[in-house]
């Protein structure tokens, strides 16, 4: 049953996207490009979402912080592979003006909660069961990350899994640009995630694909 979730979720997402876009979900396509990509936009939509464990997370509450929004799913192998890296880097930066938000899309709440527990995810994790937030953000696959500056403007979009060095570099660059300086503690020894892949959704064939990346 779990193996069918990506397929079922994909068709649900495409159906919703067709309605929302008037019949052409142009943002959904197989995306083999990994790394930082052009966004073509200066901001991202505000959203409120159910938090794992109860309550809600509202994007507006993080204004004034450097923010990383990560779209993922518990059934996504690259997401699972990079999860320890995200958890570790967050622990290094959490005492400063930095916040992460995880947005789990097309997933079961119990599986999301198990993922959060298994990987000791300490940053806010939210649920987007039908992928509506992902559609609004123009997400083309998972994992996919959006970096928001302290004013709420979109700074970077990153497609595919990240290693710790790249994530730290982006956070430090954004903190320097904001005049906030380095805030992380002494980093633990964290190697590359080895998450050499990316699950892209949509495309001409209406299916999903995994694109390889560098280890």
Structure report:
There is one protein chain. With 215 residues, the protein is an alpha+beta fold. 30% of the residues lie in helices and 25% in strands. The chain has 5 helices and 11 strands. It has helices at residues 5-21, 77-93, 109-118, 132-137, 164-177; strands spanning 35-37, 48-51, 56-58, 66-72, 98-105, 125-128, 141-142, 144-148, 154-159, 197-202, 207-212. The strands form 2 sheets. Strands 1-9-8-4-5-6-2-3 form an 8-stranded mixed beta sheet. A 3-stranded antiparallel beta sheet has the order 7-10-11, covered by helices on one side. β10 (197-202) and β11 form a beta hairpin. It is globular and about 40 Å long. The relative contact order is 0.24. Mean pLDDT is 76; it is low at 2-7, 9-32, 183-196 and 202-215.
Please describe the structure with a list of short key phrases separated by commas or semicolons.
25% strand, globular, alpha+beta, 215 residues, 8-stranded mixed sheet, 30% helix, disordered C terminus
